[in-house]
């Protein structure tokens, strides 16, 4: 069975993919749906959802359209999630690959360096980094990338170590291929499946991290994001539930979608590991 | 009076498998005190019947029709609770991998005692005494110590004895042994087979012995069943089947076994293709700040040479250092001292960049046909990567790859396929083609046919013999199987614990072994007497 067939036979993964595509579309089309942007004050504040025509999710403390905020927030969440994951992969994959392939002191050095980052709690480090770099979209993305690459490095290192012991790598050495050639052409392509799975889950974590930072007021002040919406609604959480509920639901749905996709990818890429009873 | 009577048993495979039934219309019985050997190649369904009897069928595989009568009941239909009570008590099983079949965190004595506990027999003190008796019965050395040992402290053969002790604990009427000696060295295998024969005589239990090795059959079987594609193709007493096989398949299987008979080796007196002088390699294991590391001398001052066009067999048991020697010759392992001279250059002394340029002189054919080809590369790439790195023009390398695929009998068009589209034997042919593509002066075949079924093994050996004549190849053929070595090699070198104990022409080593270790090794080959008698 092909990879694609296995993936779409998993109902959860298909649902996740559907939600993610919808969020992506909304994010891409945001300027067309709300040309005035998320900051425009359109009505009086604290309008309850489903009561006013044209404002299905009501308005916030300053009379801004909650739905417009959600739509624009999707752009930020997805952008930060994807870019920071790509950056984390760019740091983690080469470091882990070199450590696993060369072993000995290269491995020792790279892993001690990785542990240095792992000993500091992720979120605390991210807060410190954002505070030092001044909150902006770029600094948040960089901070999230810096706290999320160590697990990638460890995963890639372990995979590379196991693949390097296979006989075809010995055969490539005997063929006189250079170390770099063996690592990039023979070893790394055989480690992609777990990396893909991990990356899909990392995007979800990055979205959560970004929301948490924005919630604490460490987000980019010029950009509307889901975390910021929740943070701003914190003081009125008892009188205006919808201000924190809808952005929260958006985060839950997107993260859930990504997790479902990650699990589906895992089952599809490693068919022999997939759980029993579904064959 | 039969202990187990299987009638018209069919076991259905899940949809999408390569055939509908793992086992089809299979009927046989085992009498008390009898050893029945079930023989077949991989995928013949030989283990499935045993798994069904024990209730160990894998997910999705079910019994379609038939009965298995044991003690007056059809054990295929009894309840789980009844089946559990039968297991261990009246039917016991031993497995192929003694390492994974024992719990690594439990002492041997406790594991044996646990069998009694599971069936609520005896007091704890009695259990311990019984466990000690069993350890004595399976002839484990130093029983008082073994009872407190953990599995990792035992050798493979000792672990298998411990497994047998567990199986015997409740004096079963039927013992099912699924390839119990396949993972063991020949000398250990011979001891375990003898132990099983002894126990059968002493206890009068029935034994169902599943194996792929006709040598083992000759050694142990009373009656034999030969299986292919889930069907029984031949049955009879051991002598009937081995001496006068009726079915074509059995005949072919028997013909494919490398015979113990030795051809007179041709004299080779040409320039050496490989010369090894005083090679040494020591591994240091463990050790720390205050502990001395344990030293293992994998290669202990070995010197030998291989002439151009000669096949030298390197035999030895696991841990003898034969594979390390092979890997040291190609410098996948760097030796501590000594010289490895191939075509005038000392491979052991080259720097990394010189080594890469000299790599093509020695090539290797690996053991595991599934791990030795990159699953993401087409065959064409596996065959051309090396030559292109060596400086051969791309289209030339491609043309040569097609030619080589013809040579090894797979057809030029097969180059565009992926490794998973080939069977184990075909992959091994690709491995040979890959080695030839580099135009090496010496090929090292490290257990190159050990992972293959006998009939496939014979074909690959034929190919190697043919190639050797056509290209005047020099081969260092590393194997644990003396019969295979006798078939292909001109000279044999025997290694034990890193030392070369004997080297000489095949006929000399086999018919007139000098070193006591070689004698032990030859005596341990299963079915040795039968192999020669059949010729």
TrEMBL record, chain A:
Topological relation to the membrane, as annotated: Multi-pass membrane protein
Lineage top rank: taxon: Bacteria
Membrane-spanning parts: 12-34, 76-102, 123-147, 195-219, 240-261
Domain ABC transmembrane type-1: 74-262
SUPFAM superfamilies, sorted: MetI-like
Pfam families: BPD_transp_1, OppC_N
Gene Ontology CC terms, in alphabetical order: plasma membrane
GO biological process assignments: peptide transport; protein transport; transmembrane transport
Subcellular location: Cell membrane
Keyword terms, alphabetized: Cell membrane, Membrane, Peptide transport, Protein transport, Transmembrane, Transmembrane helix, Transport
Matching PROSITE patterns: ABC_TM1
Family: Belongs to the binding-protein-dependent transport system permease family.
Protein name: ABC transporter permease
UniProtKB/TrEMBL annotation, chain B:
The ABC transporter domain, residue ranges: 4-254, 274-522
GO BP annotations listed: peptide transport; transmembrane transport
Name by which UniProt lists this protein: ABC transporter ATP-binding protein
GO CC annotation, single: plasma membrane
Membrane topology: Peripheral membrane protein
Species: Pseudooceanicola sediminis
Family, similarity comment: Belongs to the ABC transporter superfamily.
Main location, first listed in the record: membrane
PROSITE patterns found in the cross-reference section: ABC_TRANSPORTER_1 (PS00211), ABC_TRANSPORTER_2 (PS50893)
Keyword Cell membrane applies: yes
A Pfam family annotated for this UniProt entry: oligo_HPY
């Amino acid at each position: 069975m092909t990879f694609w067939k296995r993936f779409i036979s998993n109902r959860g993964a298909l649902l996740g993919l559907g939600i993610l595509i919808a969020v992506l579309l909304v994010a891409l089309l945001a300027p067309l749906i709300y040309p005035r942007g998320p900051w425009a004050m359109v009505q009086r504040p604290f309008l309850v959802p489903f009561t006013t025509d044209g404002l299905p999710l009501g308005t916030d403390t300053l009379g801004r359209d909650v739905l417009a905020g959600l739509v624009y927030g999707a752009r930020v969440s997805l952008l930060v999630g994807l870019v920071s994951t790509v950056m984390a992969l760019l740091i983690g994959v080469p470091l882990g690959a070199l450590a696993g392939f060369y072993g000995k002191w290269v491995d020792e050095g790279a892993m001690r360096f990785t542990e240095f980052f792992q000993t500091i709690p992720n979120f605390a480090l991210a807060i410190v980094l954002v505070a030092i770099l001044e909150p902006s979209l770029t600094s948040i993305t960089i901070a999230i990338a810096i706290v999320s690459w160590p697990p990638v490095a460890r995963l890639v290192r372990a995979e590379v170590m196991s693949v390097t012991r296979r006989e075809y790598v010995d055969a490539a050495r005997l063929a006189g291929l250079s170390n770099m050639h063996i690592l990039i052409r023979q070893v790394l392509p055989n480690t992609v499946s777990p990396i893909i799975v991990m990356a899909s889950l990392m995007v979800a974590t990055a979205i959560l991290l970004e929301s948490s930072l924005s919630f604490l007021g460490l987000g980019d002040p010029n950009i509307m994001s889901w975390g910021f919406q929740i943070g701003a609604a914190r003081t009125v959480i008892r009188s205006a539930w919808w201000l924190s509920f809808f952005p929260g639901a958006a985060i839950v749905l997107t993260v859930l979608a990504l997790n479902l996709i990650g699990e589906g990818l895992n089952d599809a890429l490693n068919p022999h590991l997939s759980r029993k009873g579904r064959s | 009076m039969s202990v187990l009577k299987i009638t018209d048993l069919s076991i259905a495979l899940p949809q999408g498998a390569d055939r509908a039934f793992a086992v089809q219309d299979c009927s046989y019985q085992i009498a008390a005190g009898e050893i029945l050997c079930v023989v077949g190649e991989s995928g013949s369904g030989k283990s499935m019947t045993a798994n069904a009897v024990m209730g160990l069928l894998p997910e999705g595989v079910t019994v379609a029709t038939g009965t298995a009568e044991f003690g007056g009941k059809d054990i295929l239909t009894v309840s789980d609770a009844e089946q559990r009570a039968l297991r261990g008590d009246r039917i016991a099983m031993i497995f192929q991998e003694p390492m994974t079949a024992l719990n690594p965190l439990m002492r041997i004595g406790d594991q044996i005692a646990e069998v009694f506990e599971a069936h609520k027999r005896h007091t704890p003190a009695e259990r311990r005494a019984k466990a000690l008796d069993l350890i004595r019965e399976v002839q484990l050395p130093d029983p008082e110590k073994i009872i407190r040992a953990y599995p990792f402290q035992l050798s493979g053969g000792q672990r298998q004895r411990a497994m047998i002790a567990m199986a015997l604990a409740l004096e079963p009427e039927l013992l099912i042994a699924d390839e119990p000696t396949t993972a063991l060295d020949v000398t250990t295998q011979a001891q375990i087979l003898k132990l099983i024969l002894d126990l059968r005589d002493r206890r009068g239990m029935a034994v169902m012995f599943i194996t792929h090795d006709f040598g083992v059959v000759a050694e142990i079987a009373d009656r034999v069943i030969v299986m292919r594609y889930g069907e029984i193709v031949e049955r009879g007493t051991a002598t009937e089947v081995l001496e006068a096989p009726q079915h074509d398949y059995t005949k072919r299987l028997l013909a494919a076994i490398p015979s113990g008979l030795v051809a007179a080796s041709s004299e080779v007196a040409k320039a050496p293709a490989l010369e090894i002088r005083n090679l040494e390699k020591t591994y240091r294991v463990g050790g720390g700040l205050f502990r001395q590391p344990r030293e293992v001398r994998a290669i202990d001052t070995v010197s030998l040479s291989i002439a151009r066009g000669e096949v030298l067999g390197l035999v030895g048991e696991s841990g003898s250092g034969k594979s390390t020697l092979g890997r040291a010759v190609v410098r996948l392992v760097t030796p501590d001292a000594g010289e490895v001279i191939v075509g005038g250059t000392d491979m052991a002394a080259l720097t990394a960049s010189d080594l890469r340029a000299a790599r093509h002189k020695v090539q290797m054919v690996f053991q595991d046909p599934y791990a030795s080809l990159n699953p993401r590369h087409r065959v064409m790439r596996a065959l051309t990567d090396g030559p292109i790195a060596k400086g051969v023009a791309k289209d030339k390398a491609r043309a040569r790859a097609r030619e080589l695929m013809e040579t090894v009998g797979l057809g030029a068009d097969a180059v565009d396929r992926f490794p998973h589209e080939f069977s184990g034997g075909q992959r091994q042919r690709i491995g040979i083609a890959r080695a030839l593509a580099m135009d090496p002066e010496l090929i090292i075949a490290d257990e190159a046919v050990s992972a293959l079924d006998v009939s496939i093994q014979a074909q690959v050996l034929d190919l190697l013999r043919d190639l050797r004549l056509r290209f005047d190849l020099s081969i260092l053929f590393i194997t644990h199987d003396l019969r295979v070595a006798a078939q292909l090699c001109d000279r044999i070198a025997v290694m034990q614990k890193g030392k070369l104990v004997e080297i000489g022409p095949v006929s000399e080593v086999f018919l007139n072994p000098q070193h006591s270790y070689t004698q032990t090794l030859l005596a341990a080959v299963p079915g040795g007497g039968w192999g020669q008698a059949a010729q």
